[in-house]
TrEMBL record:
It comes from the Eukaryota. GO terms for cellular component: extracellular region. The lineage of its organism: Eukaryota, Fungi, Dikarya, Basidiomycota, Agaricomycotina. It is found in: Secreted. GO terms for biological process: cellulose catabolic process. It comes from Steccherinum ochraceum. This is lytic cellulose monooxygenase (C4-dehydrogenating). It is an enzyme of class 1 (oxidoreductase). Its EC number is 1.14.99.56.
Amino acid sequence: MKAIVAILAAVSAHLVAAHYTFPDLVMNGAATADWEYVRETANHYSNGPVTSVTDPEFRCYELDLQNTAGETQTATVSAGSVIGFKAVRYDNGAIYHPGYLSAYMTPAVPAANSPDAGTGQTWFKVWEDAPVFDASTRQLTFPSTSMTQFTFTIPPSLPSGQYLVRGEQIALHVASTYGGAQFYIGCAQINVVNGGDGNPGPLVSIPGVYTGYEPGILINIYDLPANFTAYQAPGPAVWQG
């Protein structure tokens, strides 16, 4: 019995270590403190993923849908600057699972630290890093599995103001059945200065952006269809700004 318990404990520890969070905003070339500008998530201890794309928690996976926003600081960044998210795991900081990375933004009304920010059809995609299909081997490669953080440029023409910026990885290692894809999410609160007069879009709601049946979400990455030619990124097109 003790041996079985020890084995189960070891398996559980491995699964926890394989998961991660995105608690650190990357700005000015460095990562900030955990949960300083990123809303603390419900998986801050377990590191477990979100698997339902329809729950209200899918927006930012806050620890508390009403209070977490107000307990989080807002960072000031310039339009056109580079920001991102750093991954944190129990054993190291690598983004372990193969998958698709993206970043969304939304104007934060009435403010970035409001629980009501980002609750409408206001989100737009500003960056993505998709798996690459190698036709010679008929396999997908996933650059994200070697990353400890990911960064992207705030579109230079983004209007000044307060925003939520949402980093997301869709882990696809067990995505061959509905609900198998694992979502790792972090939402940072930012105030954009020196902005432009761009018109971001297309706009989507989160939750609502995915059904879970998209080819880029419901996929067996280890047994691709014979007619597979490229990974289809879910969600809207990237707004270049």
